[in-house]
Design brief:
The protein is α/β, with parallel strands linked by helices. The protein has helices at residues 8-24, 36-40, 68-76, 98-101, 114-119, 141-146, 165-178, 182-202, 230-236, 255-261, 276-285, 293-296, 314-325; strands spanning 45-49, 52-56, 63-66, 83-87, 106-108, 124-127, 150-153, 209-214, 221-224, 239-241, 250-253, 265-270, 300-304. Belongs to the bacterial solute-binding protein 8 family.
Length: 331
């Protein structure tokens, strides 16, 4: 694996060569497949993704994942041998993927620069958040395409309708299709839906809990809106998102609005430098929230941020939230 810094012109030339090789290379070569021959079946593959249409002549061999949920989708599909790097983990990688993850180079604790990204010589970059392809930082999808690098953005960032578990299914299936391993997607989805089905059975007939999601913020509250997977996740866990009318995956609301809607519980998203207990103390001391039932009763639930965005953690997050909201159903 190349880790040194090289002149940008040489890096661009290398990346372009990778694309040319991808168009003409042997379909029998793919490190991430069950067998080389099996992985080549079904190629070329053409997929539309967030406004970009890409034709893959063969599975990527040197993929880079940006953001944890993108990384874990790839690891869940057993694609670590096709990965040249990762970046921007929010929480610890799921235990079942730790061994594979440790074998992959971490390019940056947050986003790598464009030049650093190119040192991994990727032929495919998979971003979880739209910020992964920030034009101002030089990592736009167009810039990467000009360097001969194919890209994919998690479809929660460009929804064509409500983001639900069906959207999760599509994301997992399409990533698997890019790498020529559709059977792995079906195995993974069967496991994920088994968790959802079990939770659904336990919560049958339960009275939903009115929820406010607190991500962060002191002057305003950054919360889960109605355009992300959070709504379906909350509903399946036996809750109601009080800010589902915010027409974004995440958005800012005032603490006075929170008080007016009187949530029965607060779900705290855990990530970054601000600890959960610090967030709790802030909410408990906020004068606008003193009469809110969730605050009076100190009723909190906690989920890691990486479990609340479109990826393979969502079903387990549904179960975790359901257990915290309705513990009597899980005894």
């Amino acid at each position: 694996m190349t880790t040194g810094r090289r002149p940008l012109s040489l890096l661009l030339a290398t990346a372009s060569a990778l694309l040319i090789a991808g168009c003409g290379g042997s379909p029998h070569q793919n490190a991430g497949a069950d067998t080389d021959v099996g992985a080549a079946k079904g190629f070329p593959v053409t997929l539309s993704n967030c406004g970009a249409t890409t034709t893959y002549q063969r599975p990527p061999r040197r993929a880079v994942s940006l953001n944890q949920h993108a990384t874990e989708v790839m690891l869940a599909l057993g694609l670590e041998k096709s990965m040249a790097g990762t970046a921007y983990p929010d929480n610890g990688i799921l235990p079942e993927y730790q061994a594979a993850y440790k074998k992959i180079e971490l390019l940056a604790k947050e986003y790598p620069s464009y030049e650093t990204l190119l040192t991994a010589e990727p032929d495919f970059v998979y971003g979880g958040w739209s910020s992964a392809f920030d034009e101002k930082e030089g990592r736009s999808r167009d810039a990467l395409a000009r360097a001969g690098i194919n890209t994919r953005l998690n479809i929660e960032e460009c929804p064509s309708g409500p983001v639900t578990m069906a959207t999760m299914d599509r994301e997992v299936r399409e990533v698997a299709e890019v790498f020529g391993v559709p059977e792995r997607a079906e195995r993974q989805l069967k496991r994920l839906h088994a968790t959802l089905d079990e939770v659904g059975e336990k919560l049958d007939g339960v009275e939903p809990v009115k929820l406010f999601v607190y991500d962060s913020g002191d002057r305003t509250a950054f919360t889960a809106g109605g355009a992300g997977i959070g709504n379906d996740m909350i509903e399946r866990a036996g809750g109601v998102n009080l800010f589902a009318d915010v027409d974004k995956a995440f958005g800012d609301v005032s603490f006075e609005q929170v008080a007016e809607r009187a949530p029965e519980a607060v779900v705290i998203y855990d990530y970054g430098d601000q600890a959960v207990e610090e967030k709790k103390r802030f909410l408990l001391a906020h004068p606008a929230l003193k009469d809110v039932p969730a605050i009076r009763n100190k009723r909190f639930a906690v989920l890691p941020l990486s479990s609340t965005v479109l990826g393979v953690r969502v079903p387990a997050a549904v179960e975790s939230l359901a257990r915290q909201l309705h513990p009597d159903r899980f005894r």
